[in-house]
Structures are given as structure tokens and as C-alpha cells.
Specification:
Main location: membrane
Low-confidence stretches: none
InterPro entries: PTS_IIC_man
GO biological process, one term: phosphoenolpyruvate-dependent sugar phosphotransferase system
Oligomer: single chain
Radius of gyration: 18 Å
Distance between the termini: 38 Å
Protein name: PTS system mannose-specific IIC component
Number of strands: 0
Largest sheet: none
Helix content: over 70%
Order of helices and strands: HHHHHHHH
Number of helices: 8
Shape: globular
Organism: Seleniivibrio woodruffii
């Protein structure tokens, strides 16, 4: 039941984030709070929310540019904390790397959804009659479906990729050293002030995290 509620909530996250719902339901801290209450691990989810709030600061959007899906990161992180056994704690750094990678295709799904909405609007415009309510309802439904499908699918893919990689690794990472490393690398939010392409900022952030993981 809790998993079903989480899936339904993923649609609301998408609507709030990209369909002008604007009720703060999509902020990573709020996502982590809701999922923590559903799954019964509020403290761990709270820390996940803080991490993805910090990651979101790496790339501050402006204008109509689409921000990266830090909401999905919080959703996937909290969900996987629920499904994975606590004996996997030393390998959470690998989990976060996979989530960061999956944020890109999930963000791409938004571009596709927006393109579909735009085509629907242009088609009505060419016909000479525009139905605002129909466009709003259609956009709302598309956004909700996108959240349910891509958030759930993305989390499912991460879970199986992580399980495969974890099953083929013979070394463990000291969880306490990883905690220190995570706090150090989260200071990378200053990358947002650099005049560089977004993908270069994320590449630098992920490279730093990967190097720290290899060192440990």
C-alpha cells in the first residue's frame, strides 16, 4: 500500500514541478519527508533530501530553461533506501552515482512532454480555435503520467543496475569515510558560479565523487 501511495505521489511531484501547480510538493526536502513518513525511515530520507537539495544548487536555472530532476533524485534515493537492505550502507556512494546519471534521461522526458504539449497548442491554433481548459487538463494529465512512469521506471532501473554491480563487486567501502567524503564533495555547489556548460559542471561533480569512491 505504501509503495502504491509513493507511485501516486510521484505524479504529483511532476505536476507540481512542471505544470505550474507550485505547492512545493516537488522540493527534495518535502519529497524526502513524505516518503520518510510512508516508508518509516524519516531520518535517513531527510538526509537524502538535504543531499539532493545541495546537488540542485549545482545548476540554478534561469528563464525557461529546464532544471535537472533533483526531485527524482530524492524520490529514487528514498525509495531505494526502503527496498535495499541496511547491510548495503557502505555502497550508497555507488547508488548516488547511478541516481545522478538517471536524472538526465528523466529530465529528457520532460522535454518530450513539453514538445507534445506545444504541438497540441499549435494544432488548436491552426484550427482557429483554442481551448485553454482542454490544454490545461491535457498538460496536467501528461505531466502526472510522466511522473508516475519515468520516476517508477527510473527507480526500477537503478535498483537492478545497482544490484548487478553490487553482486559483482568484491570490495566494501567504509561507510564512515564515505560520509566524510560526501560532506566534502557536497561543497561542490560553488560550481554553479562557474561560467561553463551545465554538463561540464555535472561532469566535474561526478568525477570528484567517483575519484573519492575509488580512493576509499
Amino acid at each position: 500500500m505504501n509503495v502504491a501511495l509513493a507511485v501516486l505521489y510521484s505524479g504529483l511531484i511532476s505536476v507540481d514541478r512542471f505544470a505550474a501547480f507550485n505547492m512545493m510538493l516537488s522540493r527534495p526536502l518535502v519529497v524526502s519527508l513524505v516518503l520518510g513518513l510512508l516508508f518509516g525511515n524519516s531520518l535517513e530520507c531527510f538526509f537524502v533530501g538535504i543531499i539532493f537539495e545541495a546537488i540542485g544548487l549545482v545548476d540554478v536555472p534561469f528563464g525557461t530553461r529546464v532544471p535537472k530532476e533533483d526531485s527524482f533524485g530524492a524520490f529514487a534515493g528514498c525509495s531505494l533506501l526502503y527496498f535495499l537492505p541496511h547491510t548495503h550502507e557502505p555502497n550508497y556512494v555507488l547508488l548516488f552515482l547511478l541516481i545522478l546519471l538517471m536524472m538526465y534521461p528523466v529530465t529528457l522526458s520532460l522535454h518530450i512532454t513539453r514538445a507534445v504539449n506545444k504541438k497540441l497548442y499549435l494544432r488548436q491554433q491552426r484550427s482557429g480555435r483554442i481551448y485553454p481548459l482542454r490544454l490545461l487538463v491535457t498538460g496536467f494529465c501528461f505531466s502526472y503520467a510522466r511522473g508516475v512512469v519515468f520516476y517508477t521506471l527510473g527507480t526500477f532501473i537503478i535498483f537492478h543496475v545497482y544490484s548487478f554491480l553490487h553482486g559483482n563487486r568484491n570490495t566494501d567501502i567504509n561507510f564512515y569515510l564515505f560520509s566524510l567524503m560526501a560532506f566534502a564533495f557536497l561543497s561542490g555547489y560553488v560550481l554553479r558560479f562557474l561560467s561553463a556548460k551545465t554538463y561540464l559542471k555535472y561532469a566535474a561533480f561526478m568525477l570528484g565523487l567517483l575519484i573519492g569512491w575509488v580512493i576509499l
